[in-house]
Amino acid sequence: MPYTPELAERMRLALSSRSDITEKKMFGGYCWMLNGNMICGVEVGRYMFRVGKDLESLALSRPGATPMDITGKPMRGFIWVDGQHATGAALQQWIALAEQYVGTLPPK
After folding, report:
1. CATH top class, domain 5-102
2. Which stretches make up the TfoX N-terminal domain (predicted)?
């Protein structure tokens, strides 16, 4: 998936102090993994966060969030967030929300 380099760099900076998160080139863009499980990614103009099904409605109530739909069928537990709504402290809050779910998954 194509991506916006500025958003990828913003995510790298937000995660730079984390030794438990690694970056992985996937689908022509970048994703970040927490203990081997995908936590977030970047596309053109937006981020992807894996929040799980239980936190999905909370995530979708936040500004800039929409369901992740690539094939015409929403991918439950994954959401898109417009890059303009995920800067600074807001980006850290999105990462923390995704970590609430992904942090419960067994390491890969």
Report:
1. alpha beta
2. 15-99
